[in-house]
Design goal:
- The chain has 311 residues and is an alpha+beta fold.
- The protein has two domains: 248 residues, 4-Layer Sandwich (Phosphatase 2c, domain 1), CATH 3.60.40; 54 residues.
- The protein contains seven helices and 13 strands.
- The strands form two sheets. Strands 1-3-4-13-12-9-10 form a seven-stranded mixed sheet.
- A hairpin with a 2-residue loop joins strand 3 and strand 4.
Amino acid sequence: MHDESEEPHALVCTEVWGGNRKVSRSVKLPSLMAWVASHPIHDGEGGGDLHYMSVCDYDLISRVALADVSGHGHDVSAVTQTLRELMHKNINLWDQSDFMRGLNDAFNKSKKYATAIVLSFHRITGRLAFSNAGHLPPLWYHAAQRSWGWLEEGNDPQLKKVAGLPVGLIPGTDYSQTVVTLNPSDLLVLYTDGITEAENGTKQELGREQLLDWARRAPVESAKALGEDLLQRLESFRGGLRNDDETLLVLQREEESRLVVLGEVASSYTFGRLRRSLKKEWSDLRFVCLEKVRTSRRRNLIRQESRVDSY
């Protein structure tokens, strides 16, 4: 899935996009612009960093998931498909509870574990629900205050304890979720430990605080501009040396007219209802046709048995 196209990939309703292959791409979601760069340590095969994005039936809810799985290549191909299926299954749910529970159970059954950060964004309210399963906290740029910080859970020690547990370790774990408001032009930077644990020529690790310092000096006019600046600084820091999969995912809420947003959602809602109605009608028609075929076969079988008896 390596694609360095200048044109953003615009996600349509019910679409799930992502994977664990090398990629550098801008992605358009409802009221959000994303930019992702993912580079597995072994070229030509999938890495242990998984990223997925989805849009609901009504162009209203977007979900973004980033996971750092134990293993590489074929070892993670099954859980890659599992994550995609869970994104589809929960595509219309803004709440994270069912998604995180399903993710934890699926990883546990596959004998894998992963750190993960999962976000759901509601484009009308601007509310962002997020769950953190032992993953590094995203960077958060507050555009109105022109300040940087971390996207972290509240101060409840119990919440932090659950949040710090990677998925796949303990079946039945219920992960907490936190809700914040993502304001227009705000930015979020998601990343895996391949970024913060990158080393320079003297074996010095980059670290979270250095990444935050870079962000404070980077351009913030777009997700792509910020992401590419951070990536260039990372290349200069480590001098081409890599020891792990690396993924950087930047999100920015767009400035939009509320009337335009409501109009787009209303249009998508009508289309979504029509699509599901047609899908149901097709399913019903298929069921009727199959029943007619079965009935016809039963009648033919009865006729054949009658002919045999008459002899």
